[in-house]
Predict the structure.
Amino acid sequence: MREWINLFESSSQRYEDGTTPYFHGTFASFDGVPNNPKKSGIYGRGIYFSKHAKFARGFGENVYEYRVTGIIADETVFNQAILDARDQGFKAHSAYIKATELLIDRGIA
């Protein structure tokens, strides 16, 4: 679901089914859903979304709106995965990469 975004619109908007829209900011231009990230972000390779269009705009001039379904790794879930990675001996950036792998293993993508 791609549509033009009013970057100053409230992030409290909701779809008819009660779900919240998420935004992805990028310098890339594409149709559909991004599914093959070329670079690794701070939390490892993946596609990052925000509930705030203005925040997503900081990652690129093209901002896309998506309805994200499934389990979403919010800050609390991701921080727990980082702690689990550190308990396994991973440090610094390696802990972020391992946390991402742990979330995937747990069915959270």
Notes: Confidence is low (pLDDT under 50) at residues 1-11.
